[in-house]
Amino acid sequence: MKVRDFMITKVFTIKPTNTVKELLTILNTNRIGGVPVVDEKGHLVGMISDGDVLRYLAPKPLGIAGLVYIIEDGELEDVLREKLTTPVKEIMTKRNVLSVSPDDEFEWTIRLLSRHHYKKLPVVNGAGRVIGVISRGDLIHNISKKMITSESDPSTKLLV
Fold first, then answer.
1. Is 158 inside a domain boundary?
2. Helices 50-57 and 20-30 sit at what angle, rounded to 10 degrees?
3. Inside any domain, residue 159
4. Farthest-apart Cα atoms in the chain, separation
5. Any idea what the CATH number is for the domain that residue 58 is in?
6. Where in the sequence is the domain holding 146, given as residue range(s)?
7. What pLDDT, on the 0 to 100 scale, is given for residue 78?
8. CB-CB contact of 23 with 29 (8 Å)
């Protein structure tokens, strides 16, 4: 089985110049946890997840030994509002971004996702353009579906 058998082709992406606010709108509207960051030609330049956003928005310790945090609601809201205007390129993962090809083996993809604790990987074609994504949830859903099908139909079996 190949990545193309499991990948999602309806891909939501974002540009490096879009803001964190625009990113949050995409994530929330589509109920997803991350997106590939692409240039004007659709080439992969990074990844960004809801975890990246939370780490960026989290109040930072101030003062001696990091024991003092921004506490006042007004100040925190102002800081968050300001951070929402930050371009995605400032907080996205840029280095060592892993991707897979639609022709990569299913087993290889499972190993990548589990070894690196990633939730999703972009699927990139030979020209470097993002054409899909594959996530842990997609894999689990499809494995479960195929196993349930194979239990009811002995002629169908999961090939790994």
1. no
2. 140
3. no
4. 67
5. 3.10.580.10
6. 3-152
7. 78
8. no
For the chain, list residues with pLDDT below 70.
59-76, 149-160
Residue with tokens 């989290």: 58
Token pair in block for residue 81: 């509002």
**By CB neighbour count within 10 A (0-12 exposed, 13-18 middle, 19+ buried), where does 132 fall?**
buried
What is the structure's pLDDT at 136?
87
Q: Which residue has the tokens 């809201």?
A: 77
Q: Residues 29-38: pLDDT tens digits?
A: 999 999 999 9
**Distances from the Cα of 94 to the Cα of 10, 39, 46, 131, angstroms:** 23, 12, 5, 19
- Overall domain count for the chain: 1
Query: Among the residues of 4-61, which ranges form H helices?
Result: 20-30, 50-57
Residue among 131, 156, 135 nearest 146 (CA): 156
The total number of residues shown for the chain amounts to 160
